Amino acid sequence: MKTNQDEFADFVRATGTQLHRAALLLTGDHHLAEDLTQATYAKVFASWRRVSAADNPLAYARTTLLNTFLSHRRLRRNSEKPVDLTVGREIAAPGVDHETRLDLLAALAVLSATDRAVVVLRYWEDRSTADVAIDLGMTETAVRTRARRALQRLRPLLDPLSDRTRS
Amino acid sequence: MNDFDAHIGTALRDRVADVHPDLDRLVAASTRAGTRIRRRRTAGVSLASALAVAAVAVVATQIAGGGQTRSVDPSVPIASEPTATAVSTAATPEVPRNADGLAVGETIDFGGDDTGTVVVRRATSVILVRSMDSERLSDDVARYPHTPIVWEDTTGPTGQPPVTVSAKGWFCQWFVADEKGICSTGGAMVTVNWRPASEHAGFADPARADVPGAKAHTYVGPVHGDLFLTIQPMAIGTSQQAIDALAGALAWR
């Protein structure tokens, strides 16, 4: 019979890559992404009994990630410091266009935290406007407005991107 | 959705497609951090529980009396309260059941796959409970308002702390993996750490040993074997008297 810790470990192994990638897009920084992902799972673990009984634990974790990210300043003041994490463990695939990747993260960094969250949820996770509105606690109109504004800001920065992506 | 809108999604996915975090490391780190969050929650619950426990423990002590124990600090008078260490060797009679009806060996079901076992019970109502999950224990403590429950973290390398406390109204939780415990009584809350003797000289300097802003000094005990104890205030209301009293109530196993 699996213990709570075993179940939690299975959950992290199944969802950790997805949440970590979202965290990287949100923060634009490997260290902050590690911190954010760990802080998220720490909160999930602290309430694991309740989370594991929920219909969709991943949705809970994703919401926790977003809330933690959006209250980032508060997180940095928190005494709970993520420990012992480095970025040296990522595995880079051969042939990756690092210049393009840096451009994309740098471009995302010009957006506000909320706009970045909208872009990541809407275009990376491919969630509907209605779902994004629920996740971020705003109206669908606000989501559309923010998404449109974000893309307008990204377009001049990333215009060559579409050509590279197509090729 | 126009052309750029369509391609931004693809570009985002491509951007992170080769990012693979170390999941085992993430599990370990987040579990540790999550456990600390639980403990902080538990400490809050413990404080409230200790308030309820304190009065009963004092009354029970007066009724039952007790044996003697070794103090961690030779300068502090020997405590008159029996300790967990003394249970296995001293002749102090045990009471069949305490006010909460708990008996030695009794298993407390915290739900799920977690249980606690009453390891030691004294006439003074000192009871040790082993459990894997401090969160569940904190939930459960409310069911036993007359019992100072001491939690032993069985996930640690040794499974038990090197010290015991004769709990005159003190409520202690031991986190063996972190080599410390959190003890509370009334408005006082402290951390008890056992540290390697090699660090003892460094704690001789109050500037290093004392907690900034605290009104009570850190207690630094004498070296015992290869360890020594420190007791540091956690709560603002923790008095020097409370720290000294706990120092006198701790005993090495």
UniProtKB/TrEMBL annotation, chain A:
**What protein name is recorded for this chain?**
RNA polymerase sigma-70 factor, sigma-E family
Q: Where is the signal peptide?
A: none
Q: Which GO terms describe its molecular function?
A: DNA binding; sigma factor activity
BP GO annotations:
DNA-templated transcription initiation
User: Record's InterPro entries?
Assistant: RNA_pol_sigma-70-like, RNA_pol_sigma-70_dom, RNA_pol_sigma-E_actinobac, RNA_pol_sigma70_r2, RNA_pol_sigma70_r4_t2, RNA_pol_sigma_r2, RNA_pol_sigma_r3/r4-like, WH-like_DNA-bd_sf
Q: Which family does it belong to?
A: Belongs to the sigma-70 factor family. ECF subfamily.
The RNA polymerase sigma factor 70 region 4 type domain covers which part of the protein?
102-154
Pfam families, alphabetically?
Answer: Sigma70_r2, Sigma70_r4_2
Which residues are in the RNA polymerase sigma-70 region domain?
Answer: 12-77
Q: Which organism is it from?
A: Nocardioides terrae
Which keywords has UniProt assigned to this entry? Answer: DNA-binding, Sigma factor, Transcription, Transcription regulation
TrEMBL record, chain B:
Q: Give the residue spans that cross the bilayer.
A: 42-65
Keyword terms of this UniProt record: Membrane, Transmembrane, Transmembrane helix
Top-level taxon: Bacteria
Presence of the UniProt keyword Transmembrane helix in the record: yes
The name this protein goes by in its record: Uncharacterized protein
